[in-house]
Structures are given as C-alpha cells and as structure tokens.
C-alpha cells in the first residue's frame, strides 16, 4: 500500500482529472423603485391637499374700539344670561329674567329683532363657571336666527344691521339667577 501524497502536484493532478465544474453565477436582481416613489408622492400630495382644504371653524367677531360707556335705551336691550349650570335666562329692557329653552330663544330673537327693526341690541352674559360649549351653543342659536331675521327685514325693505355684545356677569346678577 502506498503512502498518500498530499503535495501540490498530486492535488493538481486530481483536479485536472475530474470534470471541471462551472461556477454558479449569482443571480442579481434589481428592484425598480420608480413605482414605489410615485405612489409615495401621490399619497403625500393627497394628504397635503385634503388637510389644507379642511378649514377650522372659527367664529368671526369684530371688536369695536374700547369706550368707557355707551348710552343705550333699556327698551332696545335683550339680555341673555347663562347660569353656571348651563340654564339660559332672558329679559327685555328692565324686566325680570325668565328661563328660556334654546328652541324658544331662536324664535324670541327673530320676533324681537323684526319688531324693533334693527334697534335691538343683544347682550350675552355668561357665568365664569359655565361650560364653554354652552356659550357656543347659544351663539350658534343666535347665528341661525340671523338668517330668518335678515329675510324678514328684507321683505320690509330694510338691510340687517346686527348689534351684539358680550359683557361680564356681575356677582349680583349671578346671585339673582341662583335664586331662580
């Protein structure tokens, strides 16, 4: 028996004698990113356009220059007061405050504005502890009434001039409402 020869010559002989194997090629794939980028930009554009088209709901109010006092006839004054529990009261002129529902408030605003032909001044007084949403609800009711007021005044040939004020509620008024 022979001794195995592991020298370089023997290895070369063995390799040469066997069939030469082909090296396997690595399959390279190329990912085309163009459609992915197109979709990403389309989504980005869609979300940018839809978010800018949604406008926040803002109630516009014009604030007159600050004055110390304004003389107003009591007969032309509709005072709305909101108690801390959210109940709404109204009074015309110097009358005593009376409770009113929001549904009746709209018809009252329309009736009195048309009756006084743009002379009515609506004053809103809210307790400092009343929920913000309640005040906004009352303002929304008054804004809905404006459509009917403007239509009825237009039939009489008058242009609508809105007169509205928000005033602080005094502690005396708050105590008087608490007893009602």
In the CATH hierarchy, what is the architecture of one domain at level 2? 2-Layer Sandwich
Strand segment count: 5
* Mean pLDDT metric: 82
Main sheet record:
5 strands, mixed
At the fold tier of CATH, the topology name of one domain is Nucleotidyltransferase, domain 5
Strand line-up across the major sheet: 3-2-1-4-5
How many helices? The count is 5
- Spatial gap, N to C terminus: 124 Å
State the oligomer: single chain
- Spatial shape: elongated
Question: How are helices and strands ordered from N to C?
Answer: HHEEEHEHEH
Helix content range = 40-55%
Short structural summary:
The protein has helices spanning 8-17, 34-53, 102-116, 132-155, 171-178, and strands spanning 77-82, 88-92, 98-100, 121-126, 164-168. It has 180 residues and is of the alpha/beta class.
What does this structure look like?
The chain has a five-stranded mixed beta sheet with strand order 3-2-1-4-5. The longest helix has 24 residues, at 132-155. With 180 residues, it is of the alpha/beta class. The protein is elongated and about 115 Å long. The protein starts with 7 loop residues before the first helix and ends with a helix. It has helices at 8-17, 34-53, 102-116, 132-155, 171-178, and strands at residues 77-82, 88-92, 98-100, 121-126, 164-168. The mean pLDDT is 82. Helix 3 packs parallel to helix 4. It has a domain at 74-178: Nucleotidyltransferase, domain 5.
């Amino acid at each position: 028996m022979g001794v195995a020869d592991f020298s370089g010559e023997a290895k070369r002989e063995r390799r040469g004698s066997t069939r030469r194997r082909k090296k396997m090629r690595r399959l390279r794939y190329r990912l085309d990113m163009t459609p992915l980028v197109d979709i990403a930009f389309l989504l980005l554009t869609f979300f940018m356009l839809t978010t800018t088209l949604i406008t926040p709901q803002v109630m516009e109010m014009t604030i007159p220059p600050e004055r110390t006092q304004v003389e107003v006839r009591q007969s032309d004054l509709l005072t709305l007061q909101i108690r801390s529990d959210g109940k709404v009261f109204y009074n015309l002129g110097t009358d005593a405050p009376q409770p009113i529902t929001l549904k009746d408030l709209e018809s009252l605003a329309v009736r009195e504005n048309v009756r006084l032909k743009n002379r009515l001044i609506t004053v809103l007084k809210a307790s400092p502890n009343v929920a913000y949403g309640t005040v906004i609800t009352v303002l929304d009711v008054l804004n809905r009434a404006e459509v009917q007021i403007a239509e009825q005044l237009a039939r009489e040939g008058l242009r609508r001039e809105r007169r509205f004020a928000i005033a602080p509620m005094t502690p005396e008024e708050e105590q008087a409402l608490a007893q009602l």
